[in-house]
């Protein structure tokens, strides 16, 4: 890797938002979400560490308390969508879903600390105003959800901890922007890295951005199709009627997704529609969907951009002293 000075561009937010949107979509559609949401890495080994430490990055400890609060936030969202029986389901490598989430959360916290250290070592500045803005929005949302707020209070997830979450995101965005503008990785190295880690990039293919409305009966779906085609606003109807509450608050918008993510009936329809076209009702195991494709994009350039970032993170990880104490979370 070679450092060079260039005018800084704001690429960090694009990368972080892409990862978040992809992860949210996978969370809604399939249990494989958490491999992506929490970093996609598997822990390497495990040893006995300090009583209140789940990992160390260059001798900087990551406390069990930080892990516990992060896990509590994840637990709330997952159980709200899937119920508490999700944790016992068998996932990859014959592990339970609980084990996979626990292990990947530790890896995400390690990555966050590693990037924080790098950004500070390079004397890069994170955007405090952006942190404050996002933090205030989150606090306002939380104050409008009394049940969730009570849960956070019971788990000692206070406003200072919530702000820390956005600080971590800011470090990631600053790191990504720095990699994009000030670090050179040859095309040959990136192509080799993609080939050697092809499983990371299966989602970077032709993608569609779609929104949908999910209802219980075909009659409801047909009525909504008629109303949309007669001029009523799709997003407004999605907010009012969709059973998919996760996307309903976004007007039904699912973001971009490739083939292989959605259930087959949904995917077949989404990839057959023209931009702006409204589908007939599509029946899946979840109910009846009305689908509209908003955009189509090729992800090759995004794949190269993100592979460069992943490559640099992997190089930093190899150089770092990382200790994992997985016994603390079992």
From TrEMBL:
Name used for this protein in its record: PpiC domain-containing protein
One of the record's GO molecular function terms? peptidyl-prolyl cis-trans isomerase activity
Q: Which residues cross the membrane?
A: 21-40
InterPro entries given in the database record:
PPIase_dom_sf (IPR046357), PPIase_PpiC (IPR000297), PPIase_PpiC_CS (IPR023058), PrsA_foldase (IPR050245), Trigger_fact/SurA_dom_sf (IPR027304)
PROSITE patterns, A to Z: PPIC_PPIASE_1, PPIC_PPIASE_2
* UniProt keyword list: Isomerase, Membrane, Rotamase, Transmembrane, Transmembrane helix
Could you tell me which species this protein originates from? Answer: Geosporobacter ferrireducens
PpiC domain: residues covered: 205-295
Keyword Isomerase appears in the UniProt entry = yes
What Pfam families does this protein map onto?
Rotamase_3, SurA_N_2
Is the keyword Membrane in the record? yes
């Amino acid at each position: 890797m070679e450092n060079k000075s260039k005018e800084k561009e704001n690429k960090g937010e694009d990368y972080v938002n892409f990862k978040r949107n992809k992860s949210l979509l996978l969370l809604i559609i399939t249990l494989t979400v958490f491999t992506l949401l929490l970093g996609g890495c598997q822990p390497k080994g495990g040893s006995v560490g300090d009583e209140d430490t789940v990992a160390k990055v260059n001798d900087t400890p990551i406390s069990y308390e930080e892990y516990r609060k992060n896990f509590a936030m994840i637990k709330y969202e997952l159980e709200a969508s899937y119920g508490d029986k999700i944790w016992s389901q068998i996932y990859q490598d014959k592990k339970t879903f609980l084990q996979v989430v626990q292990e990947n959360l530790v890896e995400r916290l390690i990555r966050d600390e590693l990037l924080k250290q790098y950004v500070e070592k390079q004397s890069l500045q994170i955007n405090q105003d952006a942190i404050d803005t996002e933090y205030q929005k989150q606090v306002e949302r939380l104050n409008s959800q009394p049940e969730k707020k009570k849960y956070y209070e019971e788990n000692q997830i206070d406003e200072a901890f919530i702000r820390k979450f956005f600080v971590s995101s800011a470090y990631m965005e600053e790191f990504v922007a720095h990699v994009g503008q000030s670090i050179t990785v040859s095309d040959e190295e990136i192509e080799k890295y993609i080939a050697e880690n092809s499983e990371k990039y299966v989602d970077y293919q032709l993608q569609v951005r779609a929104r949908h409305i999910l209802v219980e009966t075909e009659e409801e779906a047909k009525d909504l199709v008629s109303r949309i085609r007669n001029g009523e606003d799709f997003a407004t109807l999605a907010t009012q009627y969709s059973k998919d509450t996760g996307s309903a608050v976004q007007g039904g918008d699912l973001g971009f997704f490739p083939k292989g993510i959605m259930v087959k009936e949904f995917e077949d329809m989404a990839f057959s529609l023209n931009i702006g076209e409204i589908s007939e009702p599509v029946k899946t195991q979840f109910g009846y969907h009305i689908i509209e494709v908003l955009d189509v994009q090729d992800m090759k350039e995004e794949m190269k951009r993100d592979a460069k970032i992943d490559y640099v993170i992997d190089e930093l990880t190899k150089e770092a002293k990382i200790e994992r104490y997985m016994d603390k979370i079992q």
